[in-house]
């Protein structure tokens, strides 16, 4: 959105409310005692949504006809697909470029399940999850598809583990007798706490969700191109700003704004196009499916009310979704994995000791119900994009690009559920100079000696 449009917005009541909230956000740290961080996030998001609903989208393209597109999104995982949908929904002429086939399995958004849960030790995330649930529901309604299966959410861990206590508190979870409730599926040690929020969990069908947002983006007028690897992003010529995006096939597109959502490739691409070092480390990890012991298959199924769960036990953070997409099997995974080069992964043995860690956890906590002999039935390689504090990076790239390039990255193994919220924010940042201010997701938090900033257990 050009400056002229922003000036017009300032005279509208909805925009005035939004802009005053933004300046309030800019004036106070997200940790300000006057306005709590979760409230700030939800206020910003809600006001942003309000603005988007209250203000007609038409002016967005008015000043940018000299560019091929208003917004060029690079990378069509869940974040890029949601950002393209959000931008196109506001009337922007949007191009989404993906390096591989659409729905390929080489990044982070493939497979058939991701957890959605509102139990986070860090209180800034549950409001995002709650908004994400609304946006998931909106997209389901708009597309006529179903991608989210709600489930109860179980969080368990040693009573002395601050993260599990905070996560349960932030989710409004209540302590339960897990053994009684789930027929002895879990063996919970003495001194552990187990808390359930009945509506806090769920399983997202990952591939279906990406497909849904791509289809919605196309319906709103976006152009989606696969096998289009972006090799360069340059500053637009002249004083009008904008960007020029080049692919390995020699195609060149101009755009008023660019959104970079390239997952585990972010550090490489951002370094090569902007010379900026981002501490986002690709990790090779795996989606693991384990055989349920005969006779227990239906007990561990989503439709029997079996929960999505997280087990906090430093250094093990193990999580699971109930049996759903592969009947007779249950997905139980470890949060983490060894560093990798996204272009040269060892798909056979690159996962380090992830399998052994999960098998040890199963043998201790679910020995009667899940089989570990022979290892997992299925292993699906995947990548995390890890930041030192496991918080996201959502920011303008700055430097010569100023506010013309915005990136969403470093989702640290817990981003999928937030896709619609992140996509919405990225599109807003690209299209609206009023923007949203999310201090704790900014790149400059890594300046100086913040590489080992404290990390609450973010889990998944
Ligand atoms: C095993 C595993 C389990 C997980 N479980 C959960 C969970 O339960 N809950 C949860 O919320 N999150 C979970 N996550 C995290 C979540 O899946 C990721 O945070 C999310 O998928 C990241 O999406 P993305 O769009 O940023 O990255 P990606 O999906 O990797 O998308 C980036 C895209 O950019 C493309 N690209 C790269 N370079 C270029 C280029 N130069 N030009 C054009 N395109 C390019 C890539 O091909 C890719 O398609 C899990 C992740 C893994 C690996």
From TrEMBL:
Q: Where is the FAD dependent oxidoreductase domain?
A: 70-429
| Residue intervals passing through the bilayer | none
Q: Which InterPro entries match?
A: FAD-dep_OxRdtase, FAD/NAD-bd_sf, MTOX
Keywords (alphabetical) are:
FAD, Flavoprotein, Oxidoreductase
Task: Fetch the Pfam families from UniProt.
Answer: DAO
Cofactor(s) this protein requires = FAD
* KW Oxidoreductase (keyword) present: yes
| Record-level Gene Ontology MF annotations | flavin adenine dinucleotide binding; sarcosine oxidase activity
Under the heading PROSITE patterns, the entry gives: PROKAR_LIPOPROTEIN
Entry coiled-coil feature ranges = none
Which PANTHER family is this protein grouped with?
Answer: OS01G0316100 PROTEIN, PEROXISOMAL SARCOSINE OXIDASE
Kindly provide the name given to this protein in its UniProt entry: FAD dependent oxidoreductase domain-containing protein
Query: Which species expresses this protein natively?
Result: Digitaria exilis
């Amino acid at each position: 959105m050009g400056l002229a449009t922003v000036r017009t917005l300032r005279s509208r009541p909805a925009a005035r409310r939004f802009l005053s909230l933004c300046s309030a956000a800019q004036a106070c740290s997200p940790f300000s005692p006057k306005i709590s961080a979760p409230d700030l996030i939800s206020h910003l998001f809600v006001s942003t949504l309000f603005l988007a609903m209250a203000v007609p989208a038409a002016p967005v393209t008015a000043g940018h006809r000299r560019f091929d597109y208003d917004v060029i999104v690079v990378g069509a995982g869940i974040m890029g697909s949601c950002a393209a949908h959000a931008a196109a929904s506001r009337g922007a002429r949007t191009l989404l470029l993906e390096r591989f086939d659409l729905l390929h399995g080489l990044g982070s958004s493939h497979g058939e399940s991701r957890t959605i849960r509102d139990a986070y030790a860090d209180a800034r995330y549950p409001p995002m999850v709650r908004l994400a649930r609304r946006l998931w529901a909106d997209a389901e309604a708009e597309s006529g598809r179903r991608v989210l299966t709600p489930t109860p959410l179980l969080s368990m861990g040693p009573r002395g583990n601050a993260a599990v206590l905070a996560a349960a508190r932030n989710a409004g979870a209540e302590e339960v007798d897990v053994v009684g409730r789930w027929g002895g599926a879990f063996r919970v040690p003495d001194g552990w706490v187990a808390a359930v929020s009945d509506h806090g969990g769920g399983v997202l069908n990952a591939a279906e969700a990406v497909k849904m947002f791509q289809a919605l983006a196309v319906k709103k007028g976006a152009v989606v191109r696969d096998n289009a690897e972006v090799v360069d992003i340059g500053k637009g010529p002249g004083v009008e700003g904008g960007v020029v995006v080049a692919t390995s096939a020699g195609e060149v597109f101009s755009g008023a704004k660019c959104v970079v959502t390239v997952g585990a490739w972010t550090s490489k691409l951002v370094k090569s196009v902007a010379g900026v070092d981002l501490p986002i480390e690709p990790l090779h990890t795996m989606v693991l499916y384990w055989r349920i012991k005969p006779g227990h298959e239906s007990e561990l199924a989503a439709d029997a009310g079996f929960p999505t769960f997280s087990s906090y036990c430093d250094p093990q953070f193990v999580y699971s979704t109930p049996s759903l997409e592969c009947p007779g099997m249950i997905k139980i995974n470890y949060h983490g994995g060894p560093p990798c080069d996204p272009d040269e992964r060892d798909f056979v043995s690159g996962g380090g000791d992830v399998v052994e860690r999960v098998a040890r956890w199963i043998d201790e906590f679910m020995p009667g119900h899940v089989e570990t002999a022979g290892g997992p039935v299925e292993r699906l390689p995947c990548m995390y994009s890890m930041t030192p504090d496991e918080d996201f990076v959502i920011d303008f790239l700055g430097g010569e690009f100023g506010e013309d390039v915005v990136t969403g990255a470093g989702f640290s193994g817990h981003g999928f559920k937030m896709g619609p919220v992140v996509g919405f924010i990225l599109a807003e940042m690209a299209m609206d100079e009023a923007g949203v201010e999310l201090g704790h997701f900014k790149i400059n938090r890594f300046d100086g000696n913040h590489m080992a900033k404290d990390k609450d257990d973010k889990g998944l």
